[in-house]
Amino acid sequence: MTTHLQIPKEALIAGRWYAGRGRNADIGMWNGEDFLVLAEVGQKVGPGPCDWVKSWGVKKEPYFQADTGCFQPFKMVDMGAVSVPQGEGRYALEMSFDGSPEGGL
Question: What's the rounded Cα separation, in Å, for the pair 44 and 51?
Fold first, then answer.
């Protein structure tokens, strides 16, 4: 097992997914400004404190720093590469993943 430090903000790559720790989720995609995470979102439907309808949606979580933010990226996720395609588009019969620690999860 290897350990990792929080990845510096300037080393993040837009459009890539990262494993880490966040307020709402532990996997997020860096868009160059914030992390986009899948999380429960709510809509207020009444005056009471429990008058919410919950569903799933995308939330933005800023990069965690000592005084602000809420997502800490520790490792880039290896999304793999198609090694044996299946028909048209992005589908695959087989995918390859980099097993090195630098390659991601």
Answer: 6
